[in-house]
Design brief:
Bound molecules: inosinic acid, magnesium ion
Largest sheet: 6 strands, mixed
Strand order of the largest sheet: 4-3-2-5-6-7
Distance between the termini: 10 Å
Order of helices and strands: EHEHEEEHEEEE
Helix content: 10-25%
Strand content: 25-35%
Shape: globular
Amino acid sequence: MSELKVLFSREQIAVRVSELGQQISKDFAGEQLVLVGVLKGAAIFLSDLSRQISLDSTFDFIAVSSYGNQKQNSGEVKLLKDVDQSMEGRNVILVEDILDTGLTMSYLKKMILAHHPKAFKIAALLDKKCRRSQPIQADYSGFEIPDEFVVGYGMDYAERYRNLPDICVVE
Ligand code: IMP
Ligand code: MG
């Protein structure tokens, strides 16, 4: 059994997610949004973030596998589920749990831009800047974290711990 240490409490997360929602609402005032969550890790972040956005918004979901599992990302991204709606002419916010090497986001960004959205932004709850291998950054970022493996608030270690209300470090 791994040891879990709280990195961000549910209260800290709620405050930050609310700030991000307000910022997005301000930046896109008067516009409609489509929030595209990356399954499964971003599901909880998307559900909380969307309720802090005071604009006409819809959801969509995308699923990817980054071959290899657990703590190591092999670097290959495979699309398991595409969006259901058309992204053309829409204001798209791609919602992700963690921006790590950036491989997943670079792949998804390229894919969505090919559908000619009106605007494209990335919202990532956590950002492991020090791990980045691709030139990509989040437009809306919750917290910058060091190179540690985290779980909870949707994020897993071998599919476990997603339902923890706090974000914890696995030691
Ligand atoms: P990237 O393609 O290297 O940026 O990988 C991003 C994906 O790896 C994230 O969407 C997460 O699913 C997963 N990931 C990276 N770091 C962690 C972590 O600390 N905990 C859980 N999942 C992680
Ligand atoms: Mg993920």
